[in-house]
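Contributing new records

If you add data, match the layout below exactly. Sequence lines come first and carry their own label; structure lines follow with theirs. Keep one chain per record. Anything else will be rejected by the validation script.
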Amino acid sequence: MKKSRFELSYMETVRRSIYVFLRDELERRLRALALEIPYRTCRDNKCSAYPYVDPSDMKPKKKEFMVESSVIRPFIVVFCEESIDESHMKYIRFNDDNRIRKDTISMVPSVNLKKSFSSGIKFFEKESFFELLENLMDVDYCLLIQRDERYKKHNSYALTHFHVKIDWPISEAAESLAKELRYVSKSLYEQGERYAEMLEQKLFEYYCCYYQSVGGRRTAALTAAQYMKSLPGLTAVYVSSEESRTLTRYSEKGVGRYAIIQIDKDYATHLKDTYKISSEAFRKSYVLGENDKTYDVTLFVTYKHTEWGIPPADGKLRMVKPDFSWIAVDCEYILPMSQSFTAQPLSVKLVYR
């Protein structure tokens, strides 16, 4: 279990406040990079129709296979409150060869920074941070943001590594989760291969995926999220998928998913009346685009784990029941656009509408 703020020293509490604030800003910017900017690029260039997500596709364990969309920008970003110790390099492949330095960055032909490279370019507080982040997003595997130990006294967070491979076997991730939830005591295979297979499938369900339809990037993200539970401090994993056309966040707050959807203008009128928002304010704050019948908006869905997806109160071993869901929809919101700082999210019910 991660320590709460009440279990931290004063300096640790300050650092957590800094981390949470920076993570909120990172999430806002990643939402724009993953969804809003590709959406506007698609509209401006009048390319093929934008691949909207149907709200029903945001149901847990959605079993349909999707066609990958070249419009969506795929990536994985991991943001850690603390520095990752070198002992974890076996499963999280970060070392001097993929550390953010001038000589390693120069090996990536797609990186074209507006300013010359300096050692401070990678720090979150620098204006150049998001430029560097965006330039490195197209490099395969994931980007790692963590506290830089060399600047410990300043609580500085930096983009320290790129091309970071998550190399933890799915079986070990499933075993870790099964022990946490008390479905096994020692080994994934202690109840046989069929039982172990069910637990591997439930690992994907726990992270709001259907095991047969999830590609390599989302698989890497959910195994990373499970592995990060063993690290001190808070962690967040963000994954943007060409197949699901969503941005998903895994953190101590659970699972959250962003997508661009279309809503009927009649339903939008109901929302405006409910929340007492003028048509002009609604368009300015929430609407990415529109046509005669619909508005294009960003839907954010949070998920909660059921009693079968949390550790039992008595701590006793229990058996997996495949038909009992481990995760369910919690809250749904229409979000203001990332550059709208005063508008509030609007609570909706669309996933099971």
